[in-house]
Design goal:
Structural class: alpha/beta
Number of domains: 2
Strand content: 5-15%
Shape: elongated
Strand order of the largest sheet: 2-3-4-5-6-7-8-9
Order of helices and strands: EEHHEHEHEHHEHEHEHEHHEHEHEHHH
CATH architecture of the largest domain: Alpha-Beta Barrel
Number of strands: 12
CATH class of the largest domain: Alpha Beta
Low-confidence stretches: none
Mean pLDDT: 95
Distance between the termini: 65 Å
CATH superfamily of the largest domain: Aldolase class I
CATH topology of the largest domain: TIM Barrel
Helix content: 40-55%
Length: 385
């Protein structure tokens, strides 16, 4: 087996995730989450968009000063003013990355920017050259809406910014339009254009529910980095969820052959911290972090899990900082009830367990808490006495 190839994890919770409706954070909240992301093992933290507001500027500056291991990245449009704002916010901290946005699809050029292709190329070239002239050594360019761009023009844009000094090419599926096999192909194409010296970073949105699948397809195609957010927060339907991408990589290591510095056992607590900061409503069935992700109430499943967890658990909950939950209800079987009664200190015969089970099923109680089970079992024992 070949050695695992390192994959950089770029987290944009504090920029792309934070700019979604209802997700705005204060400087202190961003600082709290940046520290958490660093402890989680994220390699690059996109702290914000300094030119957007005074608060964003201060947040980027504060995050940069607080980080000890992770590199900070700040976002800019392809203008001198935005690049100057990034430099002003980060000049007193350690080396950083700037991510420069450049429109590349005709939809964006015509209807948002109202500029021609040639103007877009000239703008991006000047922006990268300006950043390099300022002494910036880590310049990432994200051709916005790359997946809907004309492939020939996308190549011209990539070639132009690389020649100007870009060190990373981000490939954004800005509106989540691509299918996974299409994302894989575009990463292969970009790699064939830039060679091995230029880093490729994938950035997927979840409008079709395929952000994680697209991100994994890009990784499979050889991307050096993936851009993700905790809990998958982001514009519209969100971004690729860090926790889901990591779960796929570690559970299918033999396929992807990639390693990361993410401390998987911290994933749940990191997500919960973000949920607390933003007051997020998280679906119970959300992979990895949802309330039901490692819980079961079905008797057949519970019986299997009690004998061998792998029967109905593909992922080990402990690996992600979670615990297995056997929740009892009318869907549960006698085996799970018997096990719970033993944990609660009851040593009942099979007939007594059956009577407790029948009594619980006959009640109108939907979820059987420990108190409910104990009271019912006590009632059964009292009847026998």
């Amino acid at each position: 087996m070949s050695e695992l190839r390192k994959l950089s994890i770029f987290d944009t919770t504090l920029r792309d995730g934070e700019q979604a409706p209802g997700n705005a954070m204060t400087v202190d909240q961003k600082l709290l989450m940046a520290t958490e992301l660093e402890e989680l093992g994220v390699n690059l933290i996109e702290a914000g968009f300094p030119a957007a507001s005074k608060e964003d500027f201060e947040a980027v500056r504060a995050v940069s000063k607080a980080l000890k291991r992770a590199k900070v990245c700040a976002f800019a449009r392809a203008t001198r003013e935005d690049i100057d704002a990034v430099c002003a916010a980060l000049r007193d901290g350690p080396p950083f990355q700037i991510e420069i946005l450049s429109a590349v699809s005709d939809i964006h050029l015509q209807h948002k920017r109202c500029i021609s292709r040639e103007e877009a190329l000239a703008e991006a070239k000047k922006a990268v050259e300006y950043a390099v002239a300022l002494g910036l050594e880590d310049v990432s360019v994200a051709p916005e809406d790359a997946t809907r761009a004309d492939p020939d023009f996308l190549r011209r844009m990539v070639d132009t910014v690389v020649e100007a000094g870009a060190t990373t090419i981000g490939v954004p599926d800005t509106v989540g339009a691509f299918l996974p096999h299409q994302f894989r192909q575009i990463i292969l194409d970009v790699r064939s254009w830039v060679g091995e010296e230029i880093r490729i970073s994938v950035h997927a949105h979840n409008d079709l529910g395929l952000a994680v699948a697209g991100t994994l397809a890009g990784i499979e195609a050889g991307a050096d980095e993936c851009q993700v957010t905790l809990c998958g927060i982001g514009e519209r339907a969100g971004n690729a969820a860090l926790e889901e991408v990591i779960a796929a990589l570690v559970s299918h290591e033999e396929w992807y052959r990639r390693s990361t510095s993410i401390r998987t056992e911290r994933i749940s607590s990191s997500c919960q911290k973000l949920i607390g900061v933003l007051g997020l409503a998280t679906a119970k069935a959300k992979p990895i972090i949802g309330a039901n992700a490692f819980a079961t109430a079905a008797g057949i499943h519970q019986s299997g899990i009690l004998r061998e967890p792998r029967t109905y658990e593909f992922l080990d909950p402990a690996m992600f900082g979670r615990k297995r939950e056997i929740l009892l209800s009318r869907h549960s079987g006698r085996a799970a009830l018997r096990k719970r009664l033993e944990v609660l200190g009851f040593n009942l015969t099979e007939l007594q367990v059956l009577r407790v089970y029948d009594a619980l099923n006959a009640s109108s109680i939907r979820a059987w808490s420990d108190d409910v089970i104990m009271n019912t079992a006590g009632g059964v024992l009292a009847e026998v006495a």
